[in-house]
Structures are given as C-alpha cells and as structure tokens.
Amino acid sequence: MSVDVGPRPTLAQQLVRRKPIKLQRGPHDGPDLKRSFGTFQLMMFGVGATVGTGIFFVLQEAVPDSGPAVIISFLVAGLGAGLSALCYAEVASAIPVSGSTYSYAYHALGELVAMVIAACVLLEYGVSSAAVAVGWSGYFNELLDNLFGFSLPDALSYSPIPYEDNTTGIINLPAVVLVTMCMVLLIRGASESARVNTVMVLIKLGVLLMFVVIGLTAWNGDHFDGFWDKGAAGISAAAATIFFSFIGLDAVSTAGEEVRDPQKALPRAIMGALGVVVTVYVLVAIAGLSAQPASEFSDPEQQDAGLSVILENVTGHAAWGTVLAAGAVISIFSVTLVTLYGQTRILFAIGRDGMLPEKFSSVSPRTLTPTFNTIVVAIVVALIGGFVPADYLWDTVSIGTLMAFIVVALGVLVLRRTQPDLERPFRVPLFPITPLLTIAVCIYILSGLAAVTWVIFGGWLLVVLAFYFLWGRRHAALNCGVEITES
Amino acid sequence: MTIVVGHPTRTHDRAAISLGAMLARSIGTDLLVVSVVPAPWPTLVAGNVDKEFAAWSRETGAAAVADAERVLAEVAADLQARAVAVPGRSVPTALLEQAAGVDAGLVVVGSAEDGAWQRVGLGSTADHLLHAAHVPVAVAPRGFATHAVPRFDRATCAFRADRASSDVLRRTTEICAAAGAEVRIATFGVLGKTMYPPEIRGEQDVLDSFVEQSEAALRDAAAATGLRDVEHVVATGRDWAEAVGRLEWRHDDILVLGSSPRGVLARVFIGSHASRIIRHSPVPVVVVPES
Questions:
Q1: Which domain does B223 fall in, by range?
Q2: B147 occurs within a structural domain
Q3: Would you state the pLDDT for residue B262?
Q4: Which of B93, B116, B139 is the last residue before a domain boundary?
C-alpha cells in the first residue's frame, strides 16, 4: 500500500532529506521505556559496555607502538571517547527514537550522512564482534591449557593470514564456535538482562583489579625509563588502537530516554563511567608495564591471552593466570553476544528504512526474532573472526567509530544552527568548544592509524555508498511516503 | 467422534465436564466421562491387602462416577453421555487408552488445582496429554461453568504465519462452520527484552516489523478460509499476559492453538510461546496437534 506523495525527489533532495520523527506511537509501544534509571545505574551501563571490549587484548598491540607512554595514549583515547559521548548524548536526547548513531543521523542529518554513518557503525559492531571473538579464542585456549593440560592445535586456533611474525594456522575455530553459540542464543531471543550485565561488570573489574594488584607486586621502576622515546607519533598510533577499548561508552548516551533528569544525570554518568574506565585501564597499563619491560609485550608468547601470560610470568605458577583467563572467557562471551546483537539491530533498522533488502527486516513468526538477519551477521562475523588475525581488526574498528563520532560532533554543530528551537533535554556543556574539541581529538587519534587501515575503511565506505546509489536509493522507504506522519 | 472427558476422583471439579458438554453440544456428539482410579496390584498379597486395595479402588471409582453423573445431569441433560471409572497406573495414559477405544476426536481435562481462578493452568495430566496425544486436547480454565453458555459462539485461532498453522486454521474453520460459530484469527507478539548494556535499541523496530508482517499474513489467511467475515487481529504487549489480555474476550469464546511437532513422532509438543499463551488464556483452550 504505497501511497505516493508528489513527484520523486531529485538526487540532491534525496541525499539530504531527513526521516521525520514519528511522534505518534501505537498503543503497544508506549511505556516500555520507563524513566527508571539513576546516575549510578547509568554509569554502570557505561562501565559494563566499555570495560572488556579491548583491555584484555590491547596492551600487546599498543605498547610496542608507544612504549611506556601508552599511559598517555590511554588518557588521550579516553578524552576522545568522553567528549564524543557528550556530543552523542545531545543528539540522542534531541531525537527521541530508538536505535543507534545511524538512526539519529537519518533523522537529523539526512540520508547520505546516515549511509556514511551506517558504514562506520557496521564496521564498529561487525568487526569488533569478530575481534572480540578472536581475543576470546586466545583466553579460551589458555584456560584449556591451564585446566586440562591441552589446547587446540595451532592449525585450529589461528587464522591463515599472516601478520608480522605471528603464528598462523588454518582457521580460528573457537572464535567461529563462539559466534555460532551467540547466534543460536540471539535467534532464540535470549537477551542479557541488567542483572547479568552487572554480574559481568563485577567479573571484569574483579579480574582486572586482581591483575593490577599482582602486577604491582612485581614493580620495577626501570621499565618506565625512556618514557617519551617513541614520541608523539607513537602515542597517537597507540591511542588509535586503544580507542577500540573505549567503545561502548556511548551506551550511556542512548539511555537518555530512560533517565530521570537527563541534563544532570547524563554528563555525570558519562564522566563517572569514563573516570572508572580510565582509572582501571591506566592501572592495568601501569601494572603491566611495571611487571615486564615494554619490549616483551610484542613477544609471540603473549600474542593471545596477554594479561594471563603476564600474571603467570610474574607469579611463577598458573593459578592466577587461570583465574584471569576464566574471568575473561566468561565476560568476553557476553561482550560478543551484545555486539553481535547490536549489529543485527542496526541492519534491521537499515532494512526497515528500505536501504537493504526486505529480508533483513523480516521477523521469524516462530521465534519473534530477525532470524535471517542474525544468521547473515553471524556468518560474516564468523568468517572474519575465523580467518583474519585480530591485529588487522582493532584499527578498523577504531576508524569506524572515530569517523562516526566526528560526524556526530558535526551534527551537534549543524543542528544547533539549522534547528535552534529543537527541544534538547540534554545540551552539550561549553558549546561550541566541546564538539570542536571532540573533532580535534578524534582527528588527532585518526592521524595515528596506518595507511592500510585507511584503505580498508575507504574501500568499505565505497562499497556501502555504491550499494546505496545503485540499490538503496531506489528502494528507500521514504520514497513512498508511507512512513511520513509529519509532526 | 466421541469426546472423552477426564473427571478427577478426589476433587469435585466440574470444569472439565462443563467444557466437554459445551463442546459436545456445539459439534453434536456424545460424551464419555472417564475417572481414572489406581489400578490394583496384579499379584496376590498375603493378608488380603491387595483385595482391600482393590475394594477401595472400586469404591473410589463408584463415587467418582456418581459425582460425574450428578454433574452431567446438571449441565449435560440434553446430551448423550455416560460416566465410567477405569483403573490405570497413569491418568493421562488411561485417558488416551479410553480415547483410542471409542475413537474419540477430543480429550477434555480441567486446569491444575493451584492455577489462578478463571485462567488455564496446565497440571501434570494436561501437560502429559499435550505432549503425548494424537488427538486435540481441550483444557478448561479453573472454575469454568457453562450455565450461561450452552455453546461456544466464536473460536479464536492463534495463528503463526507458517504451513502448520494454516492447517490448524483450516481445521478450526471446518469445525466452526459445522458448529455455526464465528472464527477469529489472532497473532500474538511480545516486545523483546532490552539487551544490556543498552547500546542499541531495536526491539520496538522488530515488533513493528513483526506486526506489519503478521497483518499481511493474517489478511491472506483470512481470505484463504473462504468465509465472508473473519475477524483478524495482531495482539502485542510487553509480555504474553499483556498481549493476550489486549484482545477482547467473550465468555463464549474458545482459543484454538496448534502445537509444534518435534522429532519424527507425530506427537504434540507445545512450543514455549504456545504454552505461554495458554497460561494467560481466560477462555477454554483447544490444542490441536499440527500434522
């Protein structure tokens, strides 16, 4: 029942047209979002979503770039993430729709920007699910080895693509199995509750604190010599990789609808979560650096399950490493579940808008979940996780997220100008310094990324835009005015 | 096709007989009320213990039959009905044996004693029947009485857009046409739970999409029934109770559900969604094994 309203829009009109905000909601979708969260709970969401995505793996990647100055890199990346989260919060609060950065962009900045953001966010979620699954595989093997004395052969636990002089194999089987398990759970409609989330946060913080305490017992100040040796380039390169481990802080931003008094609670929760996360990360970095010289981080022995291996080297027996590996295996499982879920729902939203084939927004009548979508996502993520080494993945995730954040910060600036009267339950403090600073910090971090990452990102963006111009543009749901109920 | 009604021996729950009578009157058939009593020990035991047990079993059976006949006289005086007591080691197995014996088309039981009033609660007997029966099984809500409603006037068929469900709808339509009752087709959906941490929110989208899809499927299904006016509705809510409660229910309604077969045996196996819908149903439920 396509109701055609007027003539087709010109290309220029279409690229900048915005999806109207549907204020009229059906009777069934009213009060599902209760304003029930306070600052503390919100902060815990931020911590829960952030800690654990990267810290279990990232030191081994970042320290070789920056040396002991990795601590500065953590602070820079944290600053970028915190500022971005503030900008994101303003956009999210001004546009009361459910969804992700993609949905906000479509409502606020137009179709073309939305597609660019979609490309970024798909990278962020899709590739980070794969990267996290690969990291999980390392800790899983470590745990198997410590508990039962055997681990999967290299052929079944490493990807075939070489990265520097890392071990290669045929397929990273544990990563594939993990993604498959998450897929089954998602198809069955499982969801992680707020309570499970809290437990996961405690597990993650618990094992990280254990690492800090034990790592500090092996304190050796000499390891911090030559702090600035790698210079600014090293710091920004490490920050770019590390940025990956701050993804998820924006979980706080999107929860604005559920928060009592967002103007106060949102910045406090974002800053609180950021404070906790940065503190934990910097402590982990200090503990790791104090326990072993920076040069040892690139040791192939620590290629996976890095933190666990450091603990074993420090204490001299496997028990502590085992505890840490167990904590990592449990909590990273939940991280994979959540990121995979995020990916399916973003594709679902794009499918609902008509920019992807309808199959992506079809719901199985039996399970009430988007089965087709979930299977496609899981297959792609499993292929990436199974065959690409994580080293290539982290930077790709970072670039996607950073670009998305830059667009969001631009969005704040643009919206203040084009729609000054829009009601904004939350406004960025210190406008316009905050969004400008966000863009500056993000660009600085981006400058540290390797050329190959830019090529991958550019290629991916081209693919998405090509698909949009060749297919999505003609099928967009807005073409046939059904959705339009202008407020 | 006779209707077999399971009548309890201990409690005087008349809900099952009431429902059996209503259904029998609607589709024009007779009733066989079965009370299952404990089977006596097959070998002799010293001291006549076994005989005492057998005598007690017979007495219990006779009392149950008398009780059933009293209820039948009240609610099913216009129907051809008889009550029997049969020995058996398991109530559902004995009921199914009796059903097979008379080639019954339907087995009716009551709700669990601890279920909520006016709601369907699956007790152990009903649960076993739903998993093992080759024939449709009807479950009466607790306290169901048919003084006001001699016949059912409308059947709500819970519909899921797949082939098995279409089959159930077809059979429901046939029976309703014979019984002169309306058909309503309903699809139930619930809002998925928020995933924590809440980075992406997409469950409302998923539900909206599901509603659109279901409405299209329902329109097709309604057209396929060949009846002139078939009401069809998608009921959604935050949980199953809300979804089922959102529908308008009349006291002369029944709810018909298909049950998904699993494995190679053509057996009834209730899907988790179906069992949740049943649990919140305020009207009698008929569960049809999907072929």
A1: 154-288
A2: no
A3: 54
A4: B139
- Do B129 and B208 fall within a single domain? no
**Both B178 and B94 in a single domain?**
no
CB pairs under 8 A between A and B: 121
Query: By the CB < 8 Å criterion, does B149 face chain A?
Result: no
- In this prediction, residue A88 carries a pLDDT of 87
ipTM: 0.85
Q: Residue B271: its chain A contacts at CB < 8 A?
A: 366
Phi-psi category of residue A368: left, alpha or beta, with phi > 0 → left and psi -120 to 50 → alpha? left
A99:B210 CB<8 A = no
Backbone angles phi, psi at A401, to 5 degrees: -65, -45
Q: What is the dihedral of CA A325, A328, A329, A333, to 10 degrees?
A: -170
Spatial separation of the C-alpha atoms in residues B206 and A343, rounded to whole Å: 14
Q: Are residues B63 and B164 located together in one domain of the fold?
A: no
Of the candidate ranges A55-64, B142-151, B158-167, the one whose mean pLDDT is the lowest? B142-151
Residue A42 near residue A255, CB atoms below 8 Å: yes
Closest Cα to residue B32, out of B69, B4, B6, B74? B4
From B260, which residue of chain A is nearest by alpha-carbon distance?
A366
Q: By percentage, how much of chain B surpasses pLDDT 70?
A: 94
Residues B160 and B49 in one domain: no
A369 lies within 8 A of chain B by CB = yes
Q: Does A18 touch chain B (CB under 8 A)?
A: no
- Chain A interface mutation, best of B204, B205, B273, highest count of A Cβ atoms under 10 Å: B205
Identify which of A293-297, B106-110, B255-259 has the greatest average pLDDT.
Answer: B106-110
Q: Would residue B149 count as lying in a domain?
A: no
pLDDT computed for residue A162 by the predictor = 82
The single residue listed with the structure tokens 């609180």 is A272
Q: Give the helix/strand (H/E) hosting A444.
A: helix A433-446
Which residue in the set B192, B197, B199 is minimally distant from A189, CB to CB? B192
- CA-nearest residue of chain B to A189? B192
| pLDDT 10s digits, B239-249 | 899 999 999 99
Q: What residues of B are in contact with residue A365 (Cβ under 8 Å)? A: 160-162, 165, 187, 210, 213-214, 217
Name the residue among A32, A192, A346 with its Cβ closest to that of B191: A32
Low-confidence residues of chain A, pLDDT below 70? 1-7, 22-35, 53, 98, 256-257, 481-487
